[in-house]
Amino acid sequence: MYAIVEIAGQQFKVEEGKKIFVHRLDAAEGDNVEFEKVLLTDNDGTVTVGDPLVPSTVVGGKVLAHVRGDKVIIFKKKRRKGYQKRTGHRQDFTQVEILSIGAAGEAKKKASPRAEKKPAPAPVAEEVKEEVKKAPAKKAAASKEPAEKKEAVKKAPAKSKKKPEQE
Prior knowledge:
Layout: E1 2-7, E2 10-15, E3 19-23, E4 32-35, E5 38-43, E6 46-49, E7 57-68, E8 72-78, E9 83-89, E10 92-103
Antiparallel strand pairs: 1-2, 1-5, 3-10, 4-7, 5-6, 7-10, 8-9
């Protein structure tokens, strides 16, 4: 029997007893974890495809270790410019052993890569409510009468500074 499971945003084909490396999970070593995002199951030829998930099916596992992957070298270069940049990266992984594939309730604890941590409710002291005074309503704007129209004054045409033409 095998299943296709989504763990930390990636899909894995898992079987009972198989060990897999997934992106870092927020679970201590030795903890039991439960993965509820089962996309497909195959039980000796009987394939069940989820829409999008297979209902009431979970995959249980146990966290074996937290390890780091091999170093990946990133080398950037622009030719003829003297630009070279070298950096490295190591990804954190969690090694998980798959213990069971089956109905919900078999595994005890659920873990996700970025588990939502609920803040503890803080003790609330008695709050004294003060009456808020509302600002007085604004007065209505006084109605304005339109201004009287004035007649436009016609100006004399501008004098030309050109020299009169001589014939």
